[in-house]
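re: the backbone from monday

yeah here it is again, tokenized this time
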């Protein structure tokens, strides 16, 4: 078998993969990680004083989604 370990967007090599299972094999796993990273960045920008409307435009999501992130951040949901 001729296998070329090209890695992915999460790791340069499959052998050095930082997660217990391949996120590429699980659509929801990859999506969950992307949302978590996005939400972390949204929280950081909100703390810096950015407005929900600006962030919604920048991330291509609705203001309602920004509100959900804020609610989760506060522990309300």
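seq for it, each position gets an aa:
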């Amino acid at each position: 078998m001729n296998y070329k370990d090209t890695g992915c967007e999460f790791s340069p090599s499959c052998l050095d993969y930082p997660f217990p299972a391949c996120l590429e094999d699980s659509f929801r796993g990859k999506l969950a990680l992307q949302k978590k990273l996005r939400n972390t960045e949204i929280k950081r920008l909100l703390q810096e004083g950015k407005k929900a409307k600006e962030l919604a435009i920048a991330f291509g999501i609705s203001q309602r989604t920004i509100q959900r992130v804020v609610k989760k951040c506060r522990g309300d949901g």
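DSSP finds three helices and no strands in the chain. The radius of gyration is 16 Å.
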